[in-house]
Write a structure and sequence with these properties.
By secondary structure, the protein is of the alpha/beta class. 34% of the residues lie in helices and 20% in strands. It contains 21 helices and 16 strands.
Length: 503
């Protein structure tokens, strides 16, 4: 295993990284013999990682000295957008005031039409100096050198691993599967409480200590160990609360981690691949198995946030767990990125709330609404329909089409088409909106008339027997342009092309 602490101190390697940070890593890989004093695998990981971070983690990329993991870990780690969302979610759960970027302007309260957890707004938080830490200072108002100087001073302030039963301060937040530490850093920074990062791999812990120091994160404890074992070491809230009445000594109380009375939040991101590296589809197949740990986690923290793959069936996941309070389906640029489940012992048998987030769009509903609502189906004749709507990726994943139909008075083309139409424009619809130009059957004369003058188009299929490639070949249309064609099936099972342009 590579020793990151040694690498950090290798000045030749660090100099090489700085000098070649913008170069092609594929070409740099051939320079190993020219630079024998440079740890080339580590250097290439850092150059490649920083390039990815400029897009995925711009705040991290702006700070010198951040240690990046191998390429696969960078691909799998959270983006800054999604990490910030989780940080604001955690803050809301713990009853913290909204981030200061909302001050001075009245924000819409969470309602049936949406929530205030918009990714586009949240992503502005760090850049506006809203988080109470050096981590989120506004670079526009701080000189870079000043920031770097302050960060250097903070490097050695990260707490070392605590001894068993030795918590000098209350631990309010613990991440049991720390990994690269992106989610942990944003959540811990936002909450401002004593926070513990737990990771089994020693080299990731070494990197985390360095990175958290560079980020100015002063409230972090880095623990090298197994997350499940660390969870076991915490006393339940019932045990901790009862310690005073049991007549135990102060020393015994500390061994029970009485300070766990302050544990508010557990975050866990179980591995979603088996020993062979294949993706798993069941929550019980993830590592660790959160279905076995849920009762223990809920006995030791007020809330548990479980991060899962967006490919997992959230209905099945909820059925495998107890006390799920919220489901968050997070998309960025209309691509599902994460599935979050919020558990709370306080929600035993309570209602489940679904949050569908895509950039600045949000849609919130209750599971009970989904069970009681029904989809309005459009007539097979669409002459009066002027607008077509495609729900965003999070809504497609959630499947709350009945609630969507009722809330916006939109009609779905057919039960399985998942495209909506309306006579009047719907400005707040959570998805893409289009103005209908024409609706064509597959009659050759009708196709020729409606496609006259169109040489290229953006084509999508919904509940349609042909693939996009097959349809494009048949229609002889190139990709691109301002025209959007949806091939779909109506309620009378007829196949049509809905020819549109962006509204």
């Amino acid at each position: 295993m590579t020793n990151h602490s040694t690498e950090i101190k290798n000045q030749a390697t660090l100099d090489f990284i700085r000098q070649h940070q913008d170069d092609d890593v594929r070409q740099l890989a051939f320079l190993g013999s020219k630079y024998p004093e440079v740890d080339m695998p580590f250097a290439l990981d850092q150059i490649r990682g920083r390039k990815m971070a400029r897009v995925k983690l711009p705040r991290w990329a702006s700070i010198d000295g951040i240690i990046y993991p191998p390429h696969i870990s960078m691909e799998q780690c959270s983006s800054e957008q999604t990490a910030l969302y989780k940080a604001e979610l955690a803050a809301r759960l713990l009853g913290l005031s909204p981030s200061s970027s909302e001050n001075g302007e009245e924000k819409e309260k969470e309602s049936e039409n949406g929530s205030n957890l918009h990714l586009s707004e949240i992503c502005e938080f760090a850049g506006k100096g809203t988080v109470d830490s050096e981590f989120a200072k506004n670079e526009a108002t701080c000189e870079k050198q000043q920031i770097l100087t302050e960060l250097e001073e903070n490097v050695n302030e990260i707490k070392e691993e605590p001894h068993e039963g030795d918590f000098s301060e209350e631990t309010g937040f613990v991440d049991l599967t720390g990994g690269f530490g992106v989610d942990f850093s944003y959540i811990a920074s936002r909450l401002g409480v004593k926070s513990m990062y737990v990771e089994r791999q020693a080299h990731l812990c070494e990197a985390a200590k360095e990175n958290f120091g560079r980020l100015g994160l002063k409230n972090a404890i880095v623990k090298n160990g197994d997350g499940t074992e660390v969870l076991h070491s915490f006393a339940s809230k019932k045990e901790a609360a009862a310690s005073d009445s049991l007549g135990i000594t102060e020393e015994q109380s500390r061994s029970l981690l009485k300070t766990n009375l302050g544990l508010k939040l557990i975050f866990i991101d179980p591995a979603r691949r088996d020993d062979a590296g294949n993706k798993v589809v069941s929550l019980k197949d993830c590592t660790p198995d959160v279905t076995l740990l849920q009762e223990e986690m809920l006995s030791k923290a007020d809330y548990v946030i479980i991060k899962l793959s967006p490919m997992l069936d959230w209905h099945r996941a909820v059925s495998e767990l107890n006390c799920v309070q919220e489901v968050h389906i997070i998309s960025v640029n209309n691509e599902c990125k994460e599935l979050l489940l919020v558990l709370s012992a306080r929600n035993m048998g309570g209602n489940l709330r679904i949050y569908c987030i895509n950039d600045a769009q949000s849609f919130v509903c209750d599971e009970s609404d989904m069970e009681t609502s029904s989809v309005k189906i459009a007539p097979s004749t669409l002459e009066e329909m002027q607008y077509l709507y495609e729900p965003n990726a999070s809504l497609m994943k959630a499947g709350c089409f009945g609630v969507l139909s009722g809330r916006y008075d939109a009609r779905m083309l057919s039960k399985n088409s998942h495209l909506f139409v309306s006579m009047a424009p719907i400005e707040a619809f959570p998805g893409r909106s289009f103005r209908i130009i024409a609706i064509s059957s597959f009659n050759k004369k009708e196709l020729k008339r409606h496609l006259s003058g169109i040489t290229k188009a953006n084509i999508a299929t919904r509940n349609f027997p042909l693939s996009v490639a097959e349809l494009r070949k048949r229609l002889k249309l190139k990709d691109g342009g301002e025209t959007y064609i949806f091939a779909t099936t109506l309620s009378d099972e007829s196949h049509v092309l809905v020819i549109t342009e962006k509204a």
